[in-house]
Amino acid sequence: MLFDIINTYDDKTIAHLKQVWEDIIIELAKQEDAKKIVSFLGKCCVLWIDETKQKIHIGIPNDFVASQVEKFFKKSLQKAMQDSYDNHYSPNFVIYTELQSWEHQLQTTIKHLLPQGNETPTFSLEEPTISKELSDHFGILFDPQYTFARFIVWSYNELAYSAWHAIAQKPWEVYNPFFIYGNVWLGKTHLMQAIGNYIIEHDKNKVVLYLPTSTLIDKIIEWVKKWTLAQLQQKLQDVDVLMLDDIQFLAWKERTQEIFHNIFNEFYTSKRQIILTSDRAPKELTTLEARLQTRFALGVVADIKQPDLETRIAILQAKIAEKWVQLDPEHIELIAQTVQSNIRELEWALNIIATRSTLLNKPISQNDIIDALSTLGYKQQRTSHHQTQAQHVAEWFDGVVTHIANHYGLLVSDMIGTKRTQDVSRARQLAMYIAKTHFQWSLQKIWAYFWWKNHATVIYAIETATTQLNEDKHLQKYYTLLIKTFDL
């Protein structure tokens, strides 16, 4: 098995695999954005080179990163691999959860390998001059941090992302108007500005204007007072893509709604792209004129839902990779369980935790997590509930270990100590197997419980217990009883 091969590597082989991975990353940086490489490949490594099948097996820490690597890097990684290693080799992606903790012997820091100037894409609004004139007048610039590469795609926003990406590549040809809605801080502005940044980067002749709706309202009032609406429409005539954020703020402003209705019609009939965001679907914007609600729904309407627990964990893992913070899986889950409302607060929590770790120069503890969450207004009852659950699970597993020890006529201290008799080893292996398969404990957590062990020992114990359960009928009978007793 792959686990066995990895754990028999000597120092020379490990050094070779690390060098192969670094060479691949250096080549990959010639094709891909450095920030994106760090975000999704930072914890990955070369696990094994199969000379017979001409495959380089790349370890990936979890399913989410695997999906992003497949989406963004599959072709470019193969090219980088062939350019740096051998033209006949191709990558094979292997999900290897031990890479999540930054403690594996094959992992290496890749940030220093990447060109520093490529970490954050920069875009200029100096040309064409129309874009600069509009930007100067309205006072709104695109944030270069908002790119497709930095947007976390998951089931809760996949439809919106796919549509936005299509518009960015072929604006005014598909999905016009495009209307996206959802609660605050779920990524609507990020996606909208990602389109603008993409268009500006790839076609500098196109004029893209992004405005919060509140700014548009202020400008309309200003133009009504100082000039004429015809002059405002003339200024907007050169705009190819109009982006308005939080369109719900047009509510109760009848005169402004009428003016915007004319602007909308002008863009729509001249086949120029309109992109809108809101906190509600068009039909729910009951404080707007019915004709505006109807026009907003003429194209494609997509929503961004609140991310579920699995997605929040995936988002945190991606942000952690960017910030080079080390967090235990239990700490990540605690943050994701506590902060449920939006993505922004997930990142705020992580920033507070990262700052604390840097300033204090020490590993992050659960108390640090609790303090950071309290800073954001998440009080002790939420974290204490998690702690109670964790404590309950630990006590539950203690009961399983005690039951196994009694069955084999052993002391619990024998099972978590250094004793290695046959009965002790069999009992310990069964307990480790149950911890992995029924409690979903990580290898690190298992060897920490049986405190003198390491990853290789735990893997061996689980594999041995699996074989014994398949072959030993007496052990199968006791295992079935144990599972029923503890309702596992």
Number of domains: 4
Rounded to an integer, what's the Rg over CA atoms?
Answer: 28 Å
Please name the CATH topology of the largest domain. Answer: Rossmann fold
Q: Please report the number of helical segments.
A: 22
So what's the overall shape? elongated
Low confidence ranges: 1-6, 117-128, 380-388
- Lateral strand order in the biggest sheet: 5-6-7-4-8
- Under CATH, the homologous superfamily of the largest domain reads P-loop containing nucleotide triphosphate hydrolases
Largest sheet: 5 strands, parallel
Helix content: 55-70%
Distance between the termini: 28 Å
Structural class: alpha/beta
- The CATH class assignment of the largest domain is Alpha Beta
Present the secondary structure layout:
Blueprint: H1 2-7, H2 11-28, H3 34-41, E1 45-50, E2 55-60, H4 63-72, H5 74-84, E3 90-95, H6 129-138, H7 158-169, E4 178-181, H8 188-202, E5 208-212, H9 213-226, H10 229-236, E6 241-245, H11 254-269, E7 273-278, H12 290-296, E8 300-303, H13 309-323, H14 329-338, H15 343-360, H16 366-375, H17 380-407, H18 412-415, H19 422-437, H20 443-449, H21 455-471, H22 473-485
Helix pairs in contact: 2-5, 3-13, 7-8, 13-14, 13-15, 15-16, 17-19, 19-21, 20-21, 21-22
